[in-house]
Amino acid sequence: MAKVIMIQGTMSGAGKSLLVAGLCRILKEDGLRAAPFKSQNMALNSYITAEGLEMGRAQVVQAEAAGTEPSVLMNPVLLKPTTDTGSQVIVNGKVLGNMSAREYFSYKKELVPVILESYRKLADQYDVIVVEGAGSPAEINLKENDIVNMGLARMLDAPVLLAGDIDRGGVFAQLYGTAALLEEEERSRIKGLIINKFRGDKTILDPGIAMLEEKTRIPVVGVVPMMQVDIEEEDSISERLRDGGEKGKPGLLDIAVIRLPKISNYTDLAPLESRAGVSVRYVSGVRQLKEPDLILLPGSKNTMEDLRWLRMSGLEASILKLAEKGVPVFGICGGYQMMGEEIADPHGVEAGGSMRGMGLLPVRTIFGRSKVTTQAKGRMEELTGPWAALSGRTYEGYEIHMGDTEVDTDRGYVQILARKEDRILGICRGHAAGTYIHGIFDSREISGAILEKLAAAKGIALEDLGEGMDFKTYKEDQYRLLAEGLRASLDMEAVYRIIGEGL
């Protein structure tokens, strides 16, 4: 059986996901077979495995850092919020159903056998499992039947490293208060404390660290700096989604991403953000939209609700006016569905009934009872007109969507972007295009062709936008930088001792 170590945090956003990814990469570099594990993840960013199973993207990132294939075993329970009080519950990669928060709280103990079975299967295959908690173990209202923090640590007999976020202030109170609210048996599992996201001179912290260690009787095993690494974050706390469209880095090309309330898989846009000369802004109001070079409509967990928001906010009208002026609009998944003529929900999967779409593309989407979850790989069709640069370009990604989209090829000049057997995966008409393929911009051929066309329209060269590194190579460089930063700031001898000794 594999050795185990668990990273918990004093709050959401304390940096657990990156710490797990960094430890996975360090273990890989040191010749160990490592795998991440998060029993329950709540996120709208998800991924489809080769088997067609759905899991959280954070564990995909961690698996990539570990140099191993993502598996649904690494995230057996995924919650995808559909409303403020309910989520779609996905177990072992398949939809179990929608539950309110209260229903799930009562049900979650039934998932313990599933979680333990997934963990055992991983432990049979790897040397070390790096487990990630969720939120804080001191959320005392949620401790009953806990399956993701100290309850899981107890089930796995796992030693814990507790991380606090100094960037948001009060890190000593975070760490001490969290430990103080735990029961003695739980507190005894914490083998080390981590102060995360530090900026400045570490020696200034020394008196506080000494007092913290004295009061908690737990050693501080590292002060991790605020690292400038470009690695995917959890969707609910991503800083890039908070800039309001005004703080994005200036660039020669201006891309506006509509910041939908239920935005999902915004990581589709990460390859575009990696180019120095490209500004990717997340906008949620008409005044922020301005007149970009490209408008992107991303995925949504609740397409009809987000379309209603788009309409009421005035953004739909502004997008349509810009589209009439020739500004290209590109939709992915839910964004693609919104761009059509109609969205119908006969089974009440979302809001029920039907809604008029934006009318940019001659498609009609009908939500079914089952979800399409599959990987997609191929070449774009031969195209003419504004999207001709995509002709024959290779793509590789995945689909996650409810419903089927019917294309009316008799209405206007319509071209098929991509197909999978008898299913159309995307179309274009004029300056509007949409597709179901998540991860489409990961292809250097696809993203490069679009950026080159946008650059040419502004009289600049593609080279002016910065080096177009292969995105997989770019991510590998970021994992390496993350590992270097953690090695320099963590007491890795202590970490290995904790892994080796267990409890």
TrEMBL record:
Pathway: Cofactor biosynthesis; adenosylcobalamin biosynthesis. The keyword Lipid metabolism does not apply. Residues 254-445 form the CobB/CobQ-like glutamine amidotransferase domain. Pfam families: CbiA, GATase_3. The keyword Nucleus does not apply. Gene3D superfamilies: 3.40.50.880, P-loop containing nucleotide triphosphate hydrolases (3.40.50.300). Transmembrane segments: none annotated. CDD domains: CobQ_N, GATase1_CobQ. The active site is at residues 333, 438. Residues 5-228 form the CobQ/CobB/MinD/ParA nucleotide binding domain. Keywords: Cobalamin biosynthesis, Glutamine amidotransferase. PANTHER family: COBYRIC ACID SYNTHASE, DETHIOBIOTIN SYNTHETASE. Belongs to the CobB/CobQ family. CobQ subfamily. NCBIfam families: cobQ, PRK00784.1. Catalyzes amidations at positions B, D, E, and G on adenosylcobyrinic A,C-diamide. NH(2) groups are provided by glutamine, and one molecule of ATP is hydrogenolyzed for each amidation. This is Cobyric acid synthase. The lineage of its organism: Bacteria, Bacillati, Bacillota, Clostridia, Lachnospirales. The gene is cobQ.
